[in-house]
Amino acid sequence: MLTKKQAADKLGVSTRTIERYEANGIIRPVKLLLRSNGNYTKRYKEKELLKILEGN
Fold it and tell me: Among residues 23, 56, 30, which one has the least CA distance to residue 44?
């Protein structure tokens, strides 16, 4: 599971591009409950990122 920054580095794009991919439905983030205060954070699966790399 990668953070947005890690996913961007892996694909060689900016975090803004990751946001754009997400808005266009190319990447679907996985939400994980991280803290006891109930905050969620987005994580991305490496397998989904590999599909994008193969598609480019």
Answer: 30
Please state, in angstroms and as integers, the Cα–Cα distance from residue 38 to each residue in 33, 41, 52, following that order.
7, 10, 31
Regarding predicted confidence, which is higher, 52 or 15? 15
Q: Which helix (H) or strand (E) covers residue 32, if one does?
A: strand 30-33
Helix (H, G, I), strand (E, B) or coil at 44: strand
Distance CA 13, CA 18 (A): 7
What residue ranges do the domains of the chain occupy? 4-55
Helix, strand, or coil here: 12? coil
Q: Is the pTM of this model over 0.85?
A: no
The three state secondary structure string of 15-50 is HHHHHHHHHCCCCCCEEEECCCCCCEEEEECHHHHH
